[in-house]
Write a structure and sequence with these properties.
mainly alpha, 15 helices, 2 strands, single chain, 313 residues, 1% strand
Length: 313
Amino acid sequence: EKILPKSKQISIRLLIIYSILTLICALFYKLFGMNFFDSLTHSMTTIATGGFSNYNQSIGHFDSFLIEMTSMIFIILGSIPFIAYIKFLNGDKKIFISDSQIIAFLKVSIFSIIVLFIYLLFINGFENESLRSISFNVISVLTGTGYVTKDFDQWGNFPLIFFLILMFIGGCAGSTACGIKIFRVQLLYYFLLNQIKKIIYPRGVFVIKYDQNIIDEKFMSSVISFIFLYIIIFFSLTAILSLTGLDFITSISGAATSISNVGPGLGDVIGPNGNFSSLQNSSKWVLSLGMILGRLELFAILVLFIPSFWRKF
């Protein structure tokens, strides 16, 4: 969306908003117990949803409710479209409660927390897992941040599959989060719903709308192509990682966490309490490629390998 006359104006405002959010996050981290270096380090990777920590235990090192709450809030702020902040400053005070992508992102977050809480409390018998730890790790994995406070590998099989799905979804488009993005998942849902309506009512005319805008076939095709390509690359990375000698869980979660830029994977090797240091160099090269593809949203990298694109330059 071009909400200002010049792209330069948008870029400057985005830079200012990003910097202010980072500084505010660092201030709260400092107030709640971190030293200056830790607060600055973690604030930069919180807003960026990068998740890097200078401690092996990540945010769990501090074991602080206030620090975890601060982290969750600013992870969410970094995972919603930054254009929304500009719209808010331009006078649209209801943007955060009217934007369908933001609403969907919050619904997915709340739904995921409730599902895992019910499972761990009533089905798996994990009475020691609090709503605090479930909420933090769900938001961290969904947004691709990758901070951890608990070893969710010990929560059972269902949470592992559930986290794997959340890795793919990601945050909002126009944010610092990775993954397929909420708006593409929404559009795919609308498309499938539209196809079902056409089967039920063959003579009916149905259009796909997103935030009151009609979505044309060309745009819808690009969304479906992206999701299809995302899945193909995921399975390809999984297969290649398995060829390097990794087990099934490490291969499949490694592919998912690299292409979605999450950080921790699943299993004993690259799980929340593990790391990638023990992997072979060949595995690390494959994962590095996956991270680059995921961060640059696939098409920007793949177009470089098309000969017709070279001839234009």
